[in-house]
Amino acid sequence: MSKHTAEVVICGAGIAGVAAAYHLAVKRGLKNVVLVEQGDPLSLTSDKSSEAYRNWWPGPDGQMIALMNQSIELLEGLARASANRINLNRRGYLFATAEESKISLLAQSAEQAAHQGAGALRVHTGPATTYRPSLPEGLEGALDGADLLTGAAIHRHFPYLSPRTKAVLHVRRAGWLSAQQLGMYLLEQAREHGARLVRGQVVGVETAGGAVREVHVRQTDGSLFAIQTPVFVNAAGPFQHAVGRLLGVELPVFAELHRKMSFSEALGVVPREAPMLIWMDEVELPFSPEEREILAQEESTRRLLGRLPSGVHGRPDGHGASTTLIVLYNYHTQPVEPTFPLSPEPHYPEIALRGMSVMIPGLRQYFEKTPKPWVDGGYYLKTQENRPLIGPLPVKGSYIIGALSGFGVMAACAAGELLAAHVTGAALPGYAPAFLLSRYQDPAYRALLQNWGDTQQL
């Protein structure tokens, strides 16, 4: 078995792995960083999300907001440095509800988020308000915080929403970007500073004296080679659990399957300058009496007649003459074992479209003849409280940047920066302890988990 050397070996060239490589090679000056990836970089799940970002997080503290604020700072810096090659915008997230009881909850959550660093809350109740729509493109002069709209103000600014809508909360330091362009920019910069991409699968991690010594890689032709290294980083995305076991470490993570669909929304129901649109209420899919009778006959479709979970969301995608609308609705979130390729779900496009039509009734025009949809997806690897794992593992020289759930694209820059600080012994930010694996050994933290509340998963 041939042998090579590296200062750091990173398992996985998804968005987390390439962000770690970027910060280690470009920002920390390491000259021999190796990324091991058996497929194409950024191709497994990194480009399968909504590709969105936000600094809006609930929680008993402001640690996720602090992490995301830092990540957004870094994203904005990359956008400016690259002439916005990553297509970053600040359209915002629009949370909407048709339930009066949720208005006070929205206000309370916004006040808490403001206190924790997400920006101030502005309240608008009448038709003549000081509410300012988001800029369709660009970052300069954009607002932060959030705007709460009720009454006539909603339909003045968002006439395409359901007339039942009672309140909307427009979160401003949010929007979307091109995950593929972000990842490729980070990877190109890392490689220009000496990082290398090696094709193969990590099949073993050898230790000596309780510390990482060697990483074993199987290439596509079946041959094996070893990389001698003092540092191994688990950035294996949906396979981080299995890679952790190579070190004898059981990670407290589980996988959820999340799909998204897109189609040509040529009728222009959703304006091209719209923000990310999220429905906060449970959904009853709109079916005709005849359709309900047919669906009731089969056990596999009968469940679609009841109330389904909240969280259906979507946004426009593309530039220029694009008419693409992305819709994501993950109404079943039971833990699963990651397997590729993904198994088909024939009814998903229609369920997603009908779910989104509860928020935007104009989409019902597509029920009779839906344009051919495109469906893809991936796995969210999550911890119990939906916070990432970033930092050292119990085996000396081993680290993780994982459990990035559905926020991998938006968190990657700050997560990679934090991982690089751990590896190089640099000063750590105040939020670093919140994302350590060792947090689960703290009795006070375990007690906190019992009443954690909303994990803000979309």
Structural notes for this entry:
By secondary structure, this protein is α/β, with parallel strands linked by helices. 26% of the residues lie in helices and 25% in strands. It has helices at 15-27, 63-81, 101-115, 152-157, 179-192, 240-245, 289-295, 299-302, 348-359, 408-424, 443-449, and strands at 2-5, 8-11, 33-37, 52-54, 93-97, 121-124, 146-150, 167-171, 174-176, 196-199, 201-208, 211-218, 224-228, 232-234, 254-264, 276-279, 283-284, 307-308, 313-317, 324-328, 374-382, 389-392, 398-402. The radius of gyration is 23 Å and the shape is globular. The two termini are 45 Å apart. The mean pLDDT is 94.
Summarize the model shown.
With 458 residues, this protein is of the alpha/beta class.
Task: Show the helix and strand layout.
Blueprint: E1 2-5, E2 8-11, H1 15-27, E3 33-37, E4 52-54, H2 63-81, E5 93-97, H3 101-115, E6 121-124, E7 146-150, H4 152-157, E8 167-171, E9 174-176, H5 179-192, E10 196-199, E11 201-208, E12 211-218, E13 224-228, E14 232-234, H6 240-245, E15 254-264, E16 276-279, E17 283-284, H7 289-295, H8 299-302, E18 307-308, E19 313-317, E20 324-328, H9 348-359, E21 374-382, E22 389-392, E23 398-402, H10 408-424, H11 443-449
Parallel strand pairs: 1-13, 2-3, 2-14, 3-10, 5-16, 6-7, 14-23
Antiparallel strand pairs: 4-9, 5-8, 7-8, 11-12, 12-13, 15-20, 15-21, 16-19, 17-18, 19-20, 22-23
Helix pairs in contact: 1-5, 1-10, 2-10
